[in-house]
Design a protein that fits this description.
The chain is an alpha/beta fold. 32% of the residues lie in helices and 23% in strands. The strands form 3 sheets. The protein has a 6-stranded mixed beta sheet with strand order 5-6-4-3-9-10, sandwiched between helices. Strands 1-2 form a two-stranded antiparallel ribbon. Strand 7 and strand 8 form a beta hairpin.
Length: 171
């Protein structure tokens, strides 16, 4: 299928020949959710795909069930099963239950590079799969602690524990 990786590809630019890469981008929430991170991710995937690289975004499904789709910009989106976010009703979240599916996708896609866009469950699963398969990783940090804590306004007494969890998960 289109979702499976092709053989190694190259592209020529005049006398320069480059190897094209298979790149997996992991992000907890993607379009149709609008945020700076989702817009950045869309632009990055579009640019990479237009440059000839094979790109897959792994994210959470906005509907709850898992499915895959092809973006008109010629990259692929694999949406994992998502659960209702108890703090934001318009946003679904991933779960540790998706870890095995992320690992399976990495084994199937055989990426040359993994790009983690946040510190969510999907990124953690991708980092573990990258380590297991010796795949290089690029990681971005797009949000602040205040953004994370904004989801937990009603439980301020937990903020110290949430801070510790987020800081620990980044290492």
């Amino acid at each position: 299928t289109d979702f499976c990786p092709p053989d190694r590809m190259t592209r020529s630019f005049g006398w320069v020949r480059i190897n094209l890469m298979r790149i997996v981008i992991g992000i907890e929430s993607y379009l149709p959710n609008i945020s700076g991170v989702t817009i950045f991710t869309k632009r990055l995937a579009t640019y990479l795909a237009e440059s000839g690289h094979r790109v897959w975004i792994i994210t959470t499904s906005p509907f709850g069930w898992a499915y895959e789709e092809k973006d008109p910009a010629n990259f692929f989106i694999y949406r994992l099963k998502g659960w209702r976010n108890p703090f934001r009703k318009d946003l679904r979240i991933s779960s540790l239950r998706n870890k095995a599916e992320v690992s399976r996708l990495v084994e199937e896609l055989k990426p040359d590079l993994i790009h983690a866009q946040d510190h969510g469950v999907i990124a953690h699963a991708l980092l573990q799969a990258a380590k297991k398969n010796s795949i290089p990783v690029i990681a971005h940090h797009h949000y602040s602690m205040e953004f994370v804590l904004s989801y937990f306004k009603k439980v301020r007494f937990l903020h110290i524990f949430i801070r510790a969890l987020v800081i620990h998960s980044a290492h």
